[in-house]
Amino acid sequence: MGHEKTLTGLIPALAGANLIYGPGMLESGITFDYAQLVLDCEFIRMIKHVIRGFAVDGESLAVDVIKSVGMSGDFISQKHTLEHIQDHSQPEFMDRSRMEKWKAAGARDSYQRALEKTRDILQNHRPDQLPEKVLADIRSIITETQGELQR
User: Fold this and answer.
1) Domain of residue 49, residue span
2) pLDDT at residue 89 in the model
3) Is residue 67 one of the residues assigned to a domain?
4) How many domains does the chain have?
5) What is the pLDDT of residues 12-43, one digit of tens each?
């Protein structure tokens, strides 16, 4: 499902669409799942990461590092690697750990982790209060609409 949702979001995004339809929806929109919404937000973050693009130059390709370290050297300990490690997508729910580490941590799949996050959001999230100007604008729209409906 994740593969399908990513592709059906990525392809239109690459073509210039600025809206991804259906986060949280399953069964062609018949079912809505909060944990799926959380997972879909991760897919959307990854799609946005791709759409932003990335540099292809000597720095990003680490040409100088490759020349200095050589083909069988250690790239992980290089300063360049540390500086650019965050350039890649950083998923919250897809576990890139080795199998042994994943099993030792409870072998929870991405849906289970998303469901835990969903429960935490529903229990603990408190949205920021809207600024008074925004609230006043909303009240004004409601008042104006009510006036139009009464005519």
Assistant:
1) 1-53
2) 73
3) no
4) 1
5) 999 999 888 889 999 988 999 999 999 999 99
